[in-house]
Amino acid sequence: MRFSKFFLLACAAFAGVCGTALADDSTLAPRQVPAKTVPVPTDVSPEMQKLIAAPLNPAWNVLWKTGEEWRAAANVRAAQVDKTIPAMLERLHVTMHAETMNGVRVFVLTPDDIPPEHRDKVLIHVHGGCYELYPGESGTTEGIIMAGLGHYKVISVDYRMPPEAYFPAALDDVLTVYKDVLKTTDSKNVAVFGTSAGGALVLETMLRAKQEGLRLPGAIAPGTPMSDVTKTGDSFYTNEKVDNVLVSPNGFCHAATVVYAHGHDLKDPLLSPVYGDMHDFPPTILTTGTRDLLLSNTVRVHRKLREAGVEAQLEVFEGLSHAQYQVDDRIPETKEAFGEITEFFDKHLGH
Amino acid sequence: MRFSKFFLLACAAFAGVCGTALADDSTLAPRQVPAKTVPVPTDVSPEMQKLIAAPLNPAWNVLWKTGEEWRAAANVRAAQVDKTIPAMLERLHVTMHAETMNGVRVFVLTPDDIPPEHRDKVLIHVHGGCYELYPGESGTTEGIIMAGLGHYKVISVDYRMPPEAYFPAALDDVLTVYKDVLKTTDSKNVAVFGTSAGGALVLETMLRAKQEGLRLPGAIAPGTPMSDVTKTGDSFYTNEKVDNVLVSPNGFCHAATVVYAHGHDLKDPLLSPVYGDMHDFPPTILTTGTRDLLLSNTVRVHRKLREAGVEAQLEVFEGLSHAQYQVDDRIPETKEAFGEITEFFDKHLGH
What we know:
Low-confidence stretches of chain A: 11-21
Structural class of chain A: alpha/beta
Mean pLDDT of chain A: 94
Oligomer: homodimer
CATH class of chain A: Alpha Beta
Helix content of chain A: 25-40%
C-alpha cells in the first residue's frame, strides 16, 4: 500500500520516464479546480497589497456592443483621470503639451531633468484600455510615469478609437507617429512602449514596420500585451477570477476589442500579434504579474521572441493582476518595473 | 446606471488614480475563487499536452514523517527510474560513470561530442526530489539531458539524504564537490544547475560559497527553486490543484522537506534561499511554468537577483506545472528549456 501510493506519486512527478500517469491521446481532459480561498500575499509592498486585495472589478462583465457606448463611458472615466494629471505631472517633474504629428494627436511629455545621454533619444508611448478606453490626456499616465522615472522625453500617441475609427486606425496612427519621429531621430535612438492594448500595438507596429521595410527602433517594451485576443492562453483560465482587473476572458476587455476589430479576423497578427513573425524584432522587455489574466500571453510572446533569436527579457511581478505595475507611480513595484525598463532602454538605445 | 457601472469598472482597472476600489488598510481580505474547469492549453506541443492533461498526482498528500519511510519509497521509485537510464544515455549519446570526489558520491556524465570551446568547462548538477527522492543513478536524469543537449561534461552530485544524513548534509556535499572541481578548473569555467530542491541547493551553495570566501562560478541555472519552504509565495495558493505535480503547499514535498530540515528553522536562507543576500551572485537563468506551484518562488528569486544588480534571465513556459520542462528529453519544450540554459552558459562561462 505504501509503495503503490508512492509509485503513483513518483509517476506523476516524473511522468516522462514512467508514463502511467500520462493522459491518453484521446482524452485531454480539462482540470477540475475546486473553489478556494487565496490570501493576499505578504511578500509584496503594503501599497501593492491594497491593490491585490481589492475586490474583483464589479463591472467586469460589461459587454457593450457599439463604439458609441464605449466612448460615452470612456469619456466619463477620462474626465476623472484628467483631474489627477496635474498633480502627477508635478510629482514626477514632467511637463505636457498637446500637438499633432502628421495629423495624429499626441502629447509630448518632457521631464525637467534629461541627462545628456538621453537628449538625442525619444520614447513613443502607446496607451492601453482594450482599444476603447483612455482617450486624450487620460491615456498619458503611463507615459508620465516613464518620463518622470526614466528621464526620457516621451511622445504619447492619442490614437483614434471607436466610434471615431475602427481597426486598423489605432495601429495606423502609431505607425504614422513612428515614421514622423524617424524624420528627426535615428531609429536606434527610439523606443516604443505601452501596456495591454498598448503592448499589443507596440508589437503590431513592429510587424507593420517590417512589412513596410522601415528601420526598427532600438528597443521595445510591450507590457502584458493583448497578444492573443482569441481567448487562447492558459492563464485566461487558470487566473480567471484570480485577476481582479480583467477578471475573465469573457469580460469587458474582450467585448471592447471585438468592437474595435469591427468584424476583422481576431487571429490576424495585427490584432493577435503572437501569431506574427517576430524575426529581427528589436531587443524587447516584457512585464507581467503572476495573477495576470495575460500572464500566458506575455510569456508566449517572450518564448516566440527567443525562438526567433531576439534578445528578450521577461519580468514577472509577484501577485500582480493585469497591468497593476503601472497604476500608481508611488508604489515600490511600479518604480521597480519602470526602473527595469529604463535600464533596458539605457542599455540598448543608441547602438 | 450605465455610467456608474463603468465608473466601477474604470476604478478597478485604474485604482491608483481612483482609489474607491482599493482595499481598506484594515481589511486585506483573501480572494474567494470559485470552482472552475481549466482546459488543456492548445498552444503547447502535443507531447506536453499529455503531461498537462495528466490528473493530479494521486498521492500528493503522502505525508511521511521519517527519513526511513521516505527512503524506502525513494528506493522503489529509484529502481524504476534506473531501468530507463541506459536507453536515455544511448539516445542522448552520453556515457556515465560513478566515482567519489573528496568522499562525496558523484556520477560523471560525458557526452560523445564535446565541442572545443566546452572542453575546459564543467557543469555541476544538483538533482531535485524534495531533499528525499532520487538517490543514486535515479538522480542523474536532468544531468543526462543537460550533457546530451548542451554538450558539456556534467558532474551530478549524489548528495546524502535522510535517513543517511539530514540538513545541511546535502548542501555540504554539493559544496565539497564544488571545491574539488575548483582544484582543477577555473571558477569562471564552472556552472551549477538543478531543479526544485536542486535549484534551492544551487542558491544555497552560492550563499555558503560567499560565506566561505570562495570564488563563485561563471553562471548558475536554478530551475523552479524551492526558494521558500515556509509556504510563502502567492502561486502556492493561486496554482493549488492547478499544478498536477506538487498540487498543494500542504503536500508531500513540504512533508519531505520538514524531515530533511530535522527541526532546523525553515526560514534559514540555507533552506529558504529567497531570504539570503544575493549580491555578487553569478549570472543566473531561472526556468518555471505558468501552472507551477513554485512560479512565485521562482519570480521572487528573479526579482531579488535583479534588485541586487545581478544579470538574471527568467524563462516561463506556457501551461507547465512544477519542473515539467525536464521530465522527458524528447519533448520540444524540454529541448527549448535546455537550449536556453546552454546558450546562457555558452555566453557567460569562460570570462
